[in-house]
Write a structure and sequence with these properties.
It contains 16 helices and 21 strands. With about 575 residues, the chain is an alpha+beta fold. It has an eight-stranded antiparallel sheet with strand order 9-10-11-12-21-16-15-14, with no helix packed on it. It has a five-stranded antiparallel sheet with strand order 3-4-5-6-7, with helices on one face.
């Protein structure tokens, strides 16, 4: 492949997609916090005192807040005014120069342990935070480089070139994952935005590194059926956006397979269309928050009529024909009772361990939403500090709709990925819409098989058109032991905060706090079961919590079925009442 020049890359408008630019009253208020108090303020992290740069050494900040300050992500609030405000521009340059003075010659080597050993803040040279820093400061140069003083311009140019060189080394490279993608797109952004002259050798090294690594990374980022491998629907959209940015970069660098990647991008739209719930939010799998994503951000990657219908809740586009989609290679089933009803049912079954990144012990778990309420939910994402008991809980099987064997959760990650199989099965009944089976063999002591059938009992033509009747989700769990003659089993069903369960013969009635009857949960089992609920249990082993966003917790009810025997055969039917 041939190399490109910075001028060639500078014409790629998609590179601006990797930068978040915030405007409006809220951004101005946060910027006022800087001007008046020297605080770096954000929605997620509150007000962080800059204190001349001491915030970079503040180990009491949460990990995400450290990433925010070391990655210079606060500049997103500054871009709208920094080009016209000489004082603000000077502040931004002085901050970058101060960071370089403190840490520029203290690179400790790759990884968390190296930073700790050298006494360098972990996020100073974190793979993703370093890429974000280069992106943010390169954008600053593009926006206002011609207004900087000669001293600031020279110092910042030197700092950014050293950062780009570091990101291009194989030692620092994060590998084939979303952090690696951000690193290479950061280098591309730098080449596009920074106007100072690069020597020919540096230019060739950086462009060739970007072309080689970016192409390979993007080809490994998605499964054969078009789903991002990192176990989290939110990251599907993030990495699809990086793919949409990466393709024109690779075309400019004349990468040989750039055209094939355009086909890959088109293939990722099907999952994106189906995984969005009827209210526009995403299921809280992996590190995904159950929030509504902005239409403008999502349509940067996808513009098909079915996706537009899904993301706008029918205001734009055309309703898709299929109401369910199976992704056997990735390990997902997504079902929807109607594309024309904002209160439709939505069910997701997840059964794939394709990457260590963002993986939780949630294999062959499922989520069900009905009438815009997550009837069968899960705890969600709490954070990344693995020493925190709530983080440990969120990643464990105890936080998901799982079967736990021998009183011990499967680990979040193992030495290698895999151990989970998934397939679509032929329907067995006249009202079956779709039937799938997941097999979890991650434990050497047992094999857990879960078969899920989605049935529309009031529909003579299941799966066709729209359906507004009750839906049966029939979940068949079968646990076979390898070794012990009998074992303890624990089956967990998570309700959304504010919901409660009333016991009935052979099951539970699931209600909103005001009494609205949403669903019934019934079961049959060949073992005697004890039934209990958990809610808001603190301590070293938390139970019964939901995390609406990282670091925040709400008590939530978990239905727990326990039994002991040589084998578990349990059939659970969850019927939504519509």
């Amino acid at each position: 492949m041939s190399t490109s020049t910075p001028a060639t890359l500078s014409g790629i408008r998609e590179l601006d997609f990797v930068v978040i630019v915030k405007q409006g009253a809220d951004a101005r208020r946060r910027l006022s916090d800087w001007r008046e108090r020297r605080y770096l303020t954000s929605v997620a992290h509150g007000s962080i005192p800059f204190e001349g740069g001491d915030c970079w050494d503040d180990s009491t900040l949460e990990r995400s807040a450290q990433r925010y300050v070391h990655g210079f992500l606060f500049l997103s609030d500054w871009y709208a005014e920094v080009g016209e405000d000489v004082s603000l521009l000077s502040d931004a340059c002085e901050m970058a120069i101060e960071w370089d003075r403190r840490f520029g010659d203290r690179y400790p080597g790759p990884g968390h342990a190296a930073s700790v050993s050298a006494g360098v803040p972990v996020m100073a040279y974190h793979d993703d935070a370093t890429a974000r820093r280069l992106i943010q400061l390169s954008h600053l140069m593009e926006k206002a480089g011609d207004r900087m003083s000669a001293e600031h311009h020279h110092a910042l140019s030197d700092f950014l070139e050293r950062t780009a060189r570091l990101l291009a080394t194989e030692e620092f490279y994060a590998g084939d994952n979303n952090h690696g993608l951000f690193q290479d797109l950061a280098i591309a952004k730098y080449l596009a935005d920074v106007r100072h002259e690069l020597d020919a050798a540096t230019q060739e090294q950086l462009t060739d590194t970007v072309a080689r690594r970016l192409e390979n990374n993007l080809f490994t980022a998605f499964t054969a059926d078009g789903v991002h491998v990192e176990n989290s629907p939110g990251y599907h959209f993030i990495v699809a956006l990086l793919l949409a940015v990466g393709v024109p970069v690779l075309e400019a660098l004349q990468a040989p397979r750039a055209g094939e990647l355009r086909q890959v991008l088109r293939g990722t739209e099907r999952f994106a269309t189906h995984v969005l719930r009827p209210d526009g939010t995403l299921p809280p799998l992996g590190d995904t928050k159950p929030v509504r994503w902005g239409e403008a951000a999502l349509t940067r990657s996808y513009t098909g009529p079915g996706f537009l219908w899904s993301v706008t809740q029918g205001r734009k586009g055309t309703a898709p024909v299929d109401r369910h989609a199976v992704f056997p290679d990735a390990g997902y089933l997504v079902y929807r009772s109607s594309w024309h009803d904002l209160y439709a049912d939505h069910c997701l079954v997840k059964a794939g361990y394709r990457s260590h990144y963002h993986h939780a012990a949630d294999d062959i778990a499922l989520l069900i939403t009905s009438r815009r309420v997550p009837v069968i939910s899960e705890a969600g994402h709490y954070g990344y500090d693995l020493k925190d008991p709530y983080v440990q809980y969120a990643y464990s099987q105890y936080a998901h709709n799982s079967v736990i064997v021998a009183g011990r959760s499967q680990p979040r990650v193992a030495g290698q990925t895999g151990g989970v199989d998934f397939q679509e099965l032929p329907p067995t009944g006249e009202h079956d819409v779709v039937r799938v089976r997941g097999v979890n063999q991650r434990s050497a002591q047992s094999t857990w098989t879960r078969t899920v059938s989605v049935r529309e009992p009031g529909n003579d033509h299941p799966g066709e058109g729209g359906y507004d009747g009750p839906v049966d989700y029939v979940v068949e769990d079968d646990v076979v032991l390898h070794g012990p003659s009998e074992q303890d089993y624990e089956v967990r069903w998570h309700l959304t905060p504010g919901m409660r369960a009333e016991a009935t013969d052979g099951g539970f009635r699931i209600l909103m706090s005001g009494g609205l009857h949403l669903a019934d949960l019934l079961w049959t089992c060949d073992l005697p079961l004890t039934v209990s609920t958990e809610q808001g249990i603190d301590g070293p082993e938390p139970r019964g919590w939901a995390f609406p966003e990282p670091g925040k917790k709400w008590p939530s009810t978990v239905l727990v079925l326990r039994g002991r025997g040589p084998r578990l055969r349990l059939v659970t039917t969850i019927r939504t009442r519509r």
